[in-house]
Each structure stands twice: as structure tokens, then as C-alpha cells.
Amino acid sequence: MSVAGTLEGTSRKRTAGSNRRRLGKRVYGVVLIAAILLFWEVSSRLGWIVSAYWPPVSQIFQAAIVQLAGGDILVSLAATLRRAAIGFAVGSTLGVALGILLGRSKVLRIALLPLIEIVRPIPTPAVIPPLIMFLGVDDALKIFAISLATFFPVFTNTFAGVATVDDTLIQTARTFRTSWARTLLRVILPATLPAIAAGLRTATSLTLVVAVVSEMIAGSSGIGYYLVEMQYALRPDLMYAAVMYLAITGYTINRLFLVLEARLIPWMGKT
Amino acid sequence: MGERLGFDHVTKIFETPGSDTGFVAFDDITLEAASSEFLAIVGPSGCGKSTLLKMAAGLMPPTKGKILLDGKPIFDPPPGVVYLFQQYAKSLFAWRTVIDNVMFPLEGAPRHQRGDLREMCRDYLKQVGLDGFEDSYPWQLSGGMQQRVAIARALAADPQVLLLDEPFSAVDALTRMELQTLVLQLWERRKFTAILVTHDVEEAIFLADRVAVLGAKPTALKEIIEVGLPRPRDQLTTREDPRFLKLRHHLTSLLLARNSGHVAAV
Amino acid sequence: MRKVFLIGFAVMGLFVLAIQRATASDLEKVRVSIIPINDVAPLFVAMQNGYFRELGLEIDTTPSAGGAAGIPGLIGGSFDVVYGNVVSVLLASQQGLDVKVIAPGTKVDQRETDTTPILVRSDSGIKSGKDLEGKSISVNTRNNVIWLYARAWIKATGGDPDKVTFKEIPFPQVEDALRQQRVDASFLVAPFSVISRQKPGLTAIANPYSDIQPGVDVGQYITTGKLLSTKPETIKKFAAGLRKGAEWFNANRTSDAILAVISGYTKTDASILKSVALGAAPLRSDLTQVKKTMDLMIENKLLTGPIDLAKIIDPMAL
Amino acid sequence: MSQRSDVYRTSLLGLLSPAIVLSIWETAGLLGWVNPILLPRPSQIVWTLVELVANGAVFPPLLYTVALFVVGYVIASILGVTIGVAMATSETLYGVLEPLVEILRPIPKSALVPVLFLFLGIGKATMITVVALAAVFPVLISTFQGVRGLDPVLLDTARTFQTSRMRTIVSIVLPASLPMILAGMRVALGLGLVLVILAEMLAGEDGVGFRILDLQRAFQIRDMFAWIFVLVALGGGLMMLFDLVERRLVPWRGKT
């Protein structure tokens, strides 16, 4: 159920021959993108679309490259990533911990699950306005919002994953007189890892979305604020460039995640 | 009347990465099931029996040679050839009820005939002993019952040739015998050509007119024996027949690759 | 899985560390929420000229687009001072929030520097509030100062504001919306209003601030009553520094130096800014002007009744 | 998910923890531990909510948001499933579309909101586009994975019955990958809601998200909380509806 995976990840087991064929086919895709970009460039240059917010692509690329030498986009991006990383760490740690605890303990389940289920459907942007009044607009607010958004997919997947851990495994551990805590850490946690990883992967994309959202609503720094700021500063080229860097970031994170997943959970999808 | 189905010098080579020659699954197999014959193919595990059957069904092309249906070579799954999978649970459509699964092959028919066809499918379900389970879902049934659904569905397709790919290997011993009897009864009634692939020697002898034995890799045809046991066959008496026991001894030792002397006499 | 985190965070951490700069000083920090528009130029002038440093303050500005997070952030403790508009202050006060005006921010008292017009398509024939009945006008946010004066202008020119549809459109989108006929009129601020009028097709038919209430106090610097009583010196120093900035701004508001300052924090091209006339910065808040705004709010049902302005506006702002 | 049911079976106990939290909140308000302006008591909020429902004021913005969301979501689902199936079943289409999908997919869709405002202007079309853009990719990816992950036995079964390509897709591929499609649609549901609320907050003309931010700006905190409760109900309602539909559509889920 790794919804946030890549397209290619699914077809990893293809043979060399079909990969080569596929690479050949992909040329059409690249041509398609080039055509779209060309159309964009031409439509802007020749004035088919008259708007201050429709700069030629070349101008966007140029802005993006200039930013590499020093500019606000990368600084903003770093600020966003820092918050996203902290929020992700907090949210996913809590998600895994509570998911396992609630999955294994009936008492905790009865005590906490209804509460979690009530909070779960709130779209994150909605909690930002009231939270501003308690947490201000600084990191506390944004990290809280990001953690919240990260927590739910991780929790839900972990919780469901724990439920599918075969009792045989746990009974096996018991026959070896393994302690409860050790069973949790050494048997249940590893057995749940694939489910946790799926949750984490869904969460990674949500994390960035919500980081940007929180910066837009309660902005002062970060790439989300930067986008709104550039909107007001009439610099669409920088806005598009920022979106481009965000896309690259999102892509890199997803790739990194897949690589780590394949390394650390080699049994993923094998059981 | 069932149609003849033949393998004409069939060779199958699988491409393997890093090897130029590839893996040779079968080398030059020639074998034919006569019209309305029940042919069994036995072989050790992993000899690629299922591959042979998949080629017969037109699901996989042979590397060399031809598959002939009534003398005509086939390329795609031809009408009238029905495949009964070992993994019955996977071949049934979980989102359809039992009756809708059986209806599947008939859904190409004109709309006004659907009612009659549905009645026919009920009848097939009755024939396989699934009276009253029409509206259940496959996952609500036991393994043996699921395979009965698959059999009923195969019947609905009006098979000229029925390909059975270890169809009873995943059910318990008693259910297995019941299903064997059921298939035999249906075969005797409908007179289709049946090709059974199995690693179970007794099952092959009990069901088939002839048994083809495949050898180890690369798999080639080792021997074909005539069963010659009287029909109708019975789970108790047939299996106690001295000839049954003799055949069993012979085939088992062939598969275990022991030489036994008195084989030729049979 | 632990390794995943470690490696992931190490990568991100390095990236962040490489870019973040450490800042340390023994000056007292004042966190100010601003809206990145021309109006806060005196604050930035004071910062750049070192007026705050001389007083022992370090100003940390936090821009907020549209200013939506300003007062809530003040209440939440993220800011010590917020630049906000008069309507928000009165609304917050009515709801029982402890806000205090400590310095004036923006005042519109000269028609020639009033860059907040109502724009319409030149061929629309709309000239008055009466003409707008049954049509639509855009404001950036409903229930704010822009909305209030748009309503007042419609009423003053013979129209019924309740018969006009108010649409919320952010300033940057107004020009497109007008030209694409998605709205019939727009109450717009600089620099957007100036840029839009440079191209043909759009006409300004009114300047509601100047038309309705010349000298209106649009923006103020706000803090909380709590801060005012716990750190009175700090707040006083802030107001003093800001005033010095405003004085310098008023003396130099036609110079290019100002443009550089504004371009620095709005990130807008100086060439665009050049075409925008800058009004003088107010040195004190005007109680009678705020009272007029309050009456307008009551009339438009934004306020349920009058508020004791003396309690909201601290004497240091006067 | 059998573990969840035992919680609801003991539903009285299940209500216990929310009840405790609400009473602490209420008490804190009554005793003045928190600023009553910033955090109104739950009873006050509920009362405001009741008024909103009673005088019907709740419905126009709610319907507005729901309409925007549903239209965007339906478009995204149809597009996602169609493109997902197309890419999974045709190597050519895979080659043509894969690079484009891989470029667009990793963009946090919230970042596109201001861009789309510039692009399409502000209005319903933009809001719907925002929702659709956010929701389409989870559906697309999981449809693709679902179809690619189908058991070959299933497809072989269809082939042995000489089923046509079109009919195989409609009556085998789609139902068989339905659980995966729905898993993607579930993720899309949450994302779509996040985006519609965000878009309404950034430049709404109406809707629940617009209301929440509008009320915060006017410092009408109690009403703002009431609207947040409305949103909780909306989100919860949509999720429950989704569960219900899923159970109806995939009764065999987890059984094979």
C-alpha cells in the first residue's frame, strides 16, 4: 500500500531488454516536455498570453540559475526543510510509538483511539489560525502543524501493520521466554517495519505540503512565504523558480527514501 | 467431441540475463492428446509441466515447434480451450459472486440470451455440487468449493479441450478424491479432451487414458504408458486393482529415476 | 529504521547549517511584524540609520503578506510590536483583546500622494457608487479598512453598499481580474494601482480615503497592554526610534535612497517603485480621525458600539 | 482493521477519553486558567455551532466547500485511474507520460496555489484545479501500482476465455486493482481537503476555510472554533462515507 512510491519502483524487476525498450519510449516523454516548454516560451515571447505572470521559461531558468550563486530561494528552502525535518521526526516518532502501543494494548486503544480518530480528519490548514494565537507564528507553530500532518499516516499504517503481525511470531517469542518489551522491540517492530515505511513515505510528501501551507498562512520565512512574497513583489519568474527547486527537493527526498528503504528493509514486499 | 491437441517438436528456451544460450526448459517434445482422450503428464517438481500447459493454452509461445489444435497451429488462446489453474483462489474474481464468476465466459453473448445462460450456469453449479451457493462470494467458500466454482466456470465455456494444471494440489486429501471423481464424471458426460498436469502418480493413473512421463532437465519425454483400467473408475476398487498398483510402482520408480526390470511387460 | 533517520537528518542538517548564519549581540531584541509595503518605510529607515541601535534595541522584522498573522501573532507572543490597520485594532479591542496603539503608521492627508484609488475599466462608464449597484467591487479582505472605505465611498456617491457585491481578490491579481471582467471595480493600493494605470484601459474614478475622510489614520504600530506595563522602557525606545525614522523619511522622501530601502524589504524593482509617490509619514496619531473611522465601523455594523479610544491609544502615540 | 471494531463495540468506554478532554477544557475555561477570548469553552463553541446550524448559516459555505472539493476530487479520480491504467497497460503511453508525471508529482501542491492564482485567476476553476492537482497523483500512482501488481494468473484466466483487451480492463483489471485504487483515493481525500481549505484561506470568496480565516481576522474566536468543528465534522463525515463506500465496493478486502 505504498501509495507515495514511484512509478519506476514498481517495475524494478524488469529485464535488461525491456528496460532498454522503455528508455527508448521515454524519449517521446522528454520530447513532450520539451514541446510544452517551447510552447510556453513562444506563447510568452509572441504575446499569445498577455499577463505579467506568464514569463518566458528561459527567464525562469535564468532566475533559477542566478539563485544558485546566492539568493533567497535556497535560504528559504533550507528554512522550510529544517522545519519539515524536525516536524517529520517528531510526528513519525510519535506515530510509530503510539501505533505500536495502541496496536498491542487494549487499554491504551480504548483510551486514546477515539481521541485520535476525532482529530484525524481535520485538514491541517484549519488548525493554523487558532494555533497562531497560542504558539505565535514562529517555528513552534509550523513544526507542530507539520508533526500533526506527519503523525496520522504513520500512526494509521503502523497501527494497521501491528494488527497483521502474525500471532505465531509473538508466540514464538514467548516460547523463548522473551520479555514483553523485548518482543515489542525485536519482533513486533521489525515485523511492522514495511507498514511503517509505507506510512513514512506517505508522510514525507504530506510533510512538505504542510510545511509550505503553514508558511503561507502564517508566513515570515521559508519557501511557502517566499512564494506569496514574490506574488506580491510582482516577480513571477522567481516564483516559478522556487516551485522548480521545490520539485527537485521533493523528487530527491522521495528517491532517497526509496534507496534507504531498499537498503534497510530488504524484506519489504516479500512477505 | 473434443478436439485433438498436439505438441509438435516443441522447444522452450527462457531468456536469462547474463547468458547467451538461455535456459532450456523443454527440448523437442512431440506429444498428442487424441480427441476426447484423457491424457496425464507427470514429471518431477520444477520440470516445467505448467509451462507446457500454458503453451497448450496459447498463453505462451514455444521457442521452436508448434502447438496444433485439430492440426492447426495456435498462437493466442483459442476458443474452446479452457485452463483450470492450480491457484484457483487467484483465478476466481473476488469481486464477483459465484454465479457471476461462472457467467464470465458467457458475457459476450447477446443480452436476450443472458437469462437462459444464467439458468445454464446454475445447472453447472448444481453439477459440481454447489447448489445454493450462487450468490456467495468466492472468499466465503472453502478451497475445495472454490475449485468447484472454477470447474463450473470451465464447463460454462463449453470446453473442447480442458487443461488441468495440478488443479487439486492445494486441497486436502479427501476433497481431492471428490474433485477427481467429479472431473471424471463431467469428462465422461461431456467428452472433451482433457490434459492433466500433475506430480501425483496415483492421480494420473486414476484419471487418465494415457500417462506421459517427463524426465529431468532439460525436460524431454521419457515414456508414454497406456493405463487401460476399466471405466467408470472408482476411488476404492480402481485403486485396489493389481494393474493400478503395478503402474504406480512403475511410474514412481521412473520418477525416482530407479530402474525397474519388469516394466516392459506392461 | 533508526539509520534512515540518522542519515536523512545528517544530510538535511548539514544543508541547513551551511546556510544559516549565527547572530549574537547584547542589544535588546524587539520583534516586529510588518507588511512588506511602502507604509513601513520609516521603520526600515530607522533600522538602517542605526537609530534603534543607539537606543540599545535590535529590531527583528517579520514580514507577513497581507498582515493576517500580525495581531494573532502578537497575542500568541511571537511579536512585541505589530504594524496593523486601524480597523483590525478596533475589532481586536472590541473582542476584548488587550491591544494598544503606541505609534502612528500611515496617514493619508494629501490627495496627490494618495495612491489607493478605485479602478474601473475605462469603457465601463462607472463613475459613482450609484453606478456600481448590481455590480461588483474587489477588496483584498472583507471587513477591513479597505472594505470599510469602499462602502463609505459607495454610500457617499449615492449608492447602496448592500447592493454591491464585494469580492475578495489579492492585490496582485486585481489587474487581471479587472481586465478579464471578473470584477467591475477594485479598491487597490500601491504599487499595484500605479502599475495598473500605466497601461491603457483602466481608470481611477475615486480615492476613497481622500474623498471620504481626508487625513485618515490607516495604519498603526500596536503592542499589548501587558508588554506596555512590563517593558515600558523598551516600548518607549521603540516609539522614539521609529519617530526619528519618520522624521528622516519625511525630509528625504523624494530621494533615491528611500527607494533603495523600500526595494530592499519589498523585493520589488526600484524602477517600479519610482513611479509611486510617497506620502509623508505621520508623527502622531490623530484621535479624531480614529474616532471617525470608529463611527464608520459602527455604521457598517463592524462594531456593536463605541469603544473608549483613550484606552486603546497610548499617550505616547499622540 | 479488526482492532478498531473492538473499540467501537465498547462505545461507551470509547467516549470516555474525548469526554475527559472536553471536561478539562471546559473546567479550565470556567476557572479562568486560559484566556476565555482565545480559547472559548467547548460548551460555548457547541452553542455557537447549534445556532449556526439552527439558523442555516452553516450550509451555504459548507456546500460551497463540499462542491468545490467533490468536483475536483471526482475529476482527479477519473483522470488518475484512466492515466494510471493507461500507463500500466501500454508501454508507449508509459514512455510518453512517465517523465511528465515524474516532474509534476513531487511538487508540493500547496506551492502551486499562488502560481495557479496568477495563472487562472481567482475563482472556482482555480480552486477545483488545485484540488484536482493534489488528488490526481496519489490516485494515479496507486492505480498504476495496483494494475502492475496484478497476479498474472488473473490475466491469464481472462486470456484463456478470449476476453478482449477493453473488456479485460473493465471487468478484470479495474475491479482487481480496486483496493489499491481506493487506497490512493483515500490519500487523495485527505490531501484534497487540505488543499481546498488552503486555497479558500489564501483567496477564497466563500467556503469553510475562508470563514475560519475571516473570523480569525475579525477576532471572533468563538465562531472560528465553531467553524473548525464544522470542518472536523466534514472531514470525519467524508472519511466515514469513504469507508462505507469502500466496504460496499470491496467486500473481499483482506480476505484473499
What features would you describe in this structure?
- The complex is a heterotetramer of chains A (271), B (266), C (318) and D (256).
- Chain A is mostly helical.
- Chain A is built from 11 helices and no strands.
- Chain A has 2 domains: 50 residues; 215 residues, MetI-like fold (Orthogonal Bundle).
- By secondary structure, chain B is an alpha/beta fold.
- Chain B has 2 domains: 187 residues, Rossmann fold (3-Layer(aba) Sandwich), CATH 3.40.50.300; 72 residues, no CATH class.
- Chain B contains 9 helices and 10 strands.
- In chain C, the strands form 2 sheets. A 5-stranded mixed β-sheet of chain C has the order 2-1-3-10-4, with helices on both faces. A 5-stranded mixed β-sheet of chain C has the order 7-6-8-5-9, with helices on both faces.
- In chain C, helix 7 links the parallel strand 6 and strand 7.
- Chain C has 2 domains: 211 residues, D-Maltodextrin-Binding Protein, domain 2, CATH 3.40.190.10; 101 residues, Periplasmic binding protein-like II (D-Maltodextrin-Binding Protein, domain 2), CATH 3.40.190.
- At the B-D interface, strand 6 and helix 2 of B face helix 9 and helix 10 of D.
Mind sketching the topology for me?
The complex is a heterotetramer of chains A (271), B (266), C (318) and D (256).
Chain A: H1 7-10, H2 16-45, H3 57-68, H4 72-104, H5 106-119, H6 124-135, H7 139-163, H8 167-175, H9 180-217, H10 222-232, H11 236-264
Helix pairs in contact in A: 3-11, 4-5, 4-7, 4-9, 4-10, 6-7, 6-9, 7-9, 9-10, 9-11, 10-11
Chain B: E1 5-14, E2 23-33, E3 38-42, H1 49-56, E4 64-69, E5 72-73, E6 81-84, H2 88-91, H3 98-103, H4 114-127, H5 143-156, E7 161-165, H6 173-190, E8 193-198, H7 201-207, E9 210-214, E10 221-226, H8 237-240, H9 242-255
Parallel strand pairs in B: 3-8, 3-9, 6-7, 7-8
Antiparallel strand pairs in B: 1-2, 1-4, 4-5, 9-10
Chain D: H1 2-9, H2 11-14, H3 16-30, H4 42-54, H5 59-89, H6 91-104, H7 112-120, H8 124-148, H9 152-160, H10 165-203, H11 208-217, H12 221-249
Can I get a quick summary?
The complex is a heterotetramer of chains A (about 270), B (about 270), C (about 325) and D (about 260). Chain A is an all-alpha fold and about 270 residues long. Chain A is built from eleven helices and no strands.
Q: Please, how many helices of chain D? A: 12
Mean pLDDT of chain D: 86
Class derived from helix and strand content of chain B: alpha/beta
Instruction: Measure the end-to-end span of chain D.
Output: 15 Å
Number of domains of chain B: 2
Which class of the largest domain in chain D in CATH terms?
Answer: Mainly Alpha
> Which blocks of ≥5 consecutive residues of chain B have pLDDT under 50?
259-266
Instruction: Provide the CATH topology of the largest domain in chain B.
Output: Rossmann fold
Could you tell me the mean pLDDT of chain B?
A: 85
Count of individual beta strands of chain B: 10
Helix content of chain D: over 70%
Q: Beta-strand percentage of chain D?
A: under 5%
Distance between the amino and carboxyl termini of chain B: 29 Å
Order of secondary-structure elements of chain D: HHHHHHHHHHHH
Q: State the order of secondary-structure elements of chain B, H for helix, E for strand.
A: EEEHEEEHHHHEHEHEEHH
